[in-house]
Amino acid sequence: MLVLDSGQDTSVIELKSSTRHEAPATSTHPMIVSLIAALSTNRVIGKNNDLPWRLPDDMKYFMQTTSRHTVIMGRKNYDSLLEKFRPLPNRVNIVVTRQKDFSAPGCAVVNSLEKGIELARAANEEEVFNIGGAEMFKLGIPFTQRMYLTEIQTELQGDTFFPEIDSSNWKEISRNHHAADERHAYSFDFVVYDRLR
Ligand SMILES: NC(=O)c1ccc[n+]([C@@H]2O[C@H](COP(=O)([O-])OP(=O)(O)OC[C@H]3O[C@@H](n4cnc5c(N)ncnc54)[C@H](OP(=O)(O)O)[C@@H]3O)[C@@H](O)[C@H]2O)c1
Question: Closest Cα to atom 37, ligand 1: which residue?
Fold first, then answer.
């Protein structure tokens, strides 16, 4: 767990670069790199910089799963959050942007996903979550050891997609079904996958 909080420095953080998968020399702490996403059967994750569904129990699952951890998000995902949810509460928020002077109050701002991961590792995080959007997921798959996917059982229209995954690299370790009901227009499964190789 990290000790940084919403009062942390919001300037662009320059960390010493290190190669993928490589922990800083001072870190003795293993850290899982995870991602968490919700997608339709045709892999849609977004539309018009928003989610194309309202599934309150999935939002609750997201908040519970990532609470007290570090979340890393792309700048467009950050922009899509309602101001009252920025930064996401009870977790360290890291925003990835190429902009040098991007301001995200209460968040750390970094210029690459790798720097965000290293920042979490250096602060002894146990599990860091890539929370999207599509550009962050695509960049992050090679570093990802665990995926929390909410598989929504419908086809939807959208403009942003979860990347194709080679299923032979992943093992399903849990699946919990949630039926459609008066609050949820679609049924969905909460699925966790661990990387095999
Ligand atoms: N269903 C889900 O689970 C889920 C989760 C999250 C988001 N979403 C949806 O996904 C959509 C947003 O996704 P998106 O793919 O458009 O955007 P995104 O991944 O959230 O953010 C893209 C931005 O990240 C920064 N970036 C990308 N690559 C970078 C790199 N190599 N180095 C430094 N910065 C980099 C750039 O910011 P700058 O332009 O500032 O440089 C880029 O514009 C929205 O519709 C959102 O609602 C869905």
Answer: 97
Cis peptide before 140 (omega within 30 of 0): no
Q: Spell out the domains of the chain, with CATH numbers in brackets.
A: 32-195 (3.40.430.10)
Q: Among 87, 118, 98, 101, which Cα is nearest to 12's? A: 101
Give the span between the Cα atoms of 18 and 16, in whole angstroms: 7
Q: Is the CB of 134 under 6 A from ligand 1?
A: yes
pLDDT in tens, the chain (197 residues): 333 333 343 333 333 333 334 444 445 568 999 999 999 999 999 999 999 999 999 999 999 999 999 999 999 999 999 999 999 999 999 999 999 999 999 999 999 999 999 999 999 999 999 999 999 999 999 999 999 999 999 999 999 999 999 999 999 999 999 999 999 999 999 999 999 98
The pTM of the whole model exceeds 0.85 = yes
Ligand 1 centroid from CA 166, angstroms = 22
Cβ atoms 158, 46 nearer than 8 A: yes
User: Hey, what are 159's tokens?
Assistant: 């403009």
